[in-house]
Write a structure and sequence with these properties.
The chain is an alpha+beta fold. Helices cover 23% and strands 35% of the residues. It is built from three helices and 14 strands.
């Protein structure tokens, strides 16, 4: 299993802290209960560390690129499909698809289409739970708009959740990007929103599980 670059330093720090914690427990435990405390500590630390490593996994994926498809930007479950006013860039009604990423999903984000990054903006914000309706406009987030060679534009947002406190986006305005390539990473439970024209033909529905760079959300 490959560990994503965002997790390597964190895993080293966590390992060092756990090692130090267990040394302290061994040296300060009452002799009669030392074995019990040590076993419980090692078990708890090992399980937590394995979960951390699992969270930062970066599975290799074969991306099938198509200028007719909009791919999911994230792994997770579709919690909302609704008409809404996108008032930051398009400033009109759009079809919004919201994908909730639990702490057990892969948290690598991917480009839904190939094209040029026409708009990028980071917003500081609050930390409502990621499936809260207000999180799209109130939480810490990034807004990214990609325009393909035919002028078709897709907006997607990385939205921090209650636990997630760090959003990473690797591109910048003006960059050319490829569909399905890694776009960023959100650390711990979070959400991704994607905004499409109202008459877009969808290939998914609420409740569906999706995979970033694999699942086709809609047809252009």
């Amino acid at each position: 299993m490959t560990i994503h670059k965002e997790g390597r330093r964190i895993l080293l720090i966590v390992f060092a802290l756990m090692f130090a914690l267990n040394l302290i427990i061994i040296k300060n435990s009452n002799f009669a209960f030392a074995s019990l405390f040590y076993t419980a500590s090692i078990t708890g630390c090992s399980l937590f560390y394995l979960w951390m490593a699992y969270f930062f996994r970066d599975p290799k994926r074969t991306i099938t690129k198509s200028n007719k498809h909009i791919l999911s930007p994230a792994d997770g479950r579709i919690i909302y499909i609704e008409e809404t006013v996108e008032d930051e860039y398009f400033k009109d009604k759009r079809l919004k698809i919201s994908i909730f990423m639990s702490p057990f999903n892969v948290h690598v984000n991917r480009n839904p289409i190939s094209g040029n990054i026409k708009f990028f903006k980071y917003h500081a914000g609050k930390y409502f739970v990621a499936n809260h309706p207000k999180s799209s406009k109130k939480n810490e987030r990034t807004t990214i708009v990609i325009r393909n060679e035919k002028g078709y534009e897709v907006l997607f947002r990385q939205v921090a959740g209650f636990i997630a406190r760090r959003i990473k986006f690797y591109g910048k305005q003006g960059d050319d990007v490829q569909q399905g390539d890694e776009a960023g990473f959100i650390k711990f439970g979070s959400r991704a929103d994607i905004y499409l024209p109202l008459k877009t033909k969808l290939s998914v529905k609420e409740g569906d599980k999706v995979k970033g760079g694999i699942t086709v959300l809609a047809e252009v």
